[in-house]
Amino acid sequence: MMNPLDMPFYPGREETTGGPLARYLPPAPPGIVSAWLADHIPPGSWILDPFGGLPGMAVEAAQAGYRVLVAANNPIPRFILEVTAAAPARNDFQAALAELAAARKGNERLELHIQSLYQTECAGCKRTITAEAFLWERGAKIPYARLVHCPYCDDEGA
Questions:
Q1: Do 49 and 33 form a contact (C-beta atoms < 8 A)?
Q2: Would strands 67-70 and 46-49 be described as parallel, antiparallel, or unpaired?
Q3: Where do the domains of the chain lie?
Q4: pLDDT, position 1
Q5: pLDDT in tens, 78-123
Q6: Which of 6, 16, 155, 157 is most exposed by smallest CB count within 10 Å?
């Protein structure tokens, strides 16, 4: 029998595990299952989750290379597991983005409206260019810097 003082502790990662309907689930930091499995079970093995109470753990095990069978009779964790495990195909994302880009904001396409929000003037040649990003301080009303690379004069910086 193992001495409880010799049992390893798996703290998980400190990132938050939000997601759909997360408030209905017990807190479980990510990283615990994959670390434990790596220490005890060969990758590719079958893992049985007889209760399915933490859908994120089943997904984490699957992402770590294990085959997972979950028996989930609670509809909330079952729904979360189904949604999380069924990743959309690349063409589904492309179709959704194309539809979103074609949507209208007033008289213009949403894609063009969003692109216009990133228009700025190049400090070198004074032409209008698209910023790669704007840098903000928490609570500020305007950005304190912008990341740019001018395709005309090759000027770049913040």
A1: no
A2: parallel
A3: 10-85, 118-157
A4: 60
A5: 888 888 888 777 888 889 889 998 999 889 999 999 889 999 999 9
A6: 6
